[in-house]
């Protein structure tokens, strides 16, 4: 990128040379015009106020390359996050990405509402000439009733979960601008993989890896929601970080006609459990086939068919107390103790649940984690992808197609694949 001008000339002889010599002392010298320095442009326009927090900061240069860009927010203590420092410093920096040729830079985070933003940029041309600019503008405040509420996140901070565990983020209000929100939720793991978000409804986003998580590792979820416009006029006002651990790999497999469940931990079979599954007289009492991710556990549970659409007085209604129950779907399926079922290990006689002896049901309850996996085969009813945590029922290709970005997020710290801002870049 060496743009220095090279001067060349010829040897001049005779009269012409003499004339040039004679006139050299008497001619008026004119200074060559100074070469223009690099010209730096900043957006938003310097001095503007009322800027939407999800507006990108852009810096570009003509006649040189950018050598340094920094963006600082001041006076936004209310939105302080962990990245601002333990003392809730009133200043926060905003990172960004520089193009390969050094001609432009764009922020990769949204801005804090109600803050004064200062942009410092330096550029240099091929001759080493430098230019510097300082540009300031202000973002608008967000009214109390236009602030995004803190979402509920599973897993919760510090939990240890199984290898099939999804990350489930539930917002208090419907999310309209889902791509911005997806790209503002960063997932990092010690053992990198590819994953993506899908939405089960207007308020719930789910992240799952392409395959199950590698066991024995830590995972972090950074919800960088400050300044994100979740719905028209509704902005995030805080960031949040959740850390959890993926424990050992527990995968249970069950071919329903065999009346047995095998449990493996880190690839080694640790228990073979006789079971009795759904009698399959109709769809309701047919155990679902597919990848079930264990959801919650109960030492004692009242099972009432009214909760799954069979009210009292209807054919097939039941209400029974069960012990050592583990939920495998939202359509009423659990593993649980069933001492009344004399067909355990021999025939399928349940209403769709997986019946076990008391000792086996207690062992399964006590030795499983939320996020462990039960892979079931051999029935005519397929688990729906959004029934409980049946998210692995969608192929990876389908999962990506239903992501707002359509591309995977790599959990090695690489930024998500799309924009977090309110306009296309």
From TrEMBL:
Signal peptide: 1-27
Alphabetic keyword roster: Acyltransferase, Cell shape, Cell wall biogenesis/degradation, Peptidoglycan synthesis, Signal, Transferase
Top-level taxon in the UniProt lineage: Bacteria
Residue numbers spanned by region Disordered: 29-55, 81-109, 403-425
Active site: 336 (proton donor/acceptor), 353 (nucleophile)
Domain L,D-TPase catalytic stretches: 250-377
Keyword Glycoprotein: no
Protein name, per record: Ig-like domain-containing protein
The protein's annotated pathway: Cell wall biogenesis; peptidoglycan biosynthesis
Record's keyword annotation contains rRNA processing: no
UniProt-listed InterPro entries: Big_10 (IPR041280), LD-transpeptidase (IPR050979), LD_TPept_cat_dom (IPR005490), Transpep_catalytic_dom (IPR038063)
Pfam families in UniProt: Big_10, YkuD
Biased composition regions of type Low complexity, renumbered to the chain: 29-44
Organism per entry: Nocardiopsis lambiniae
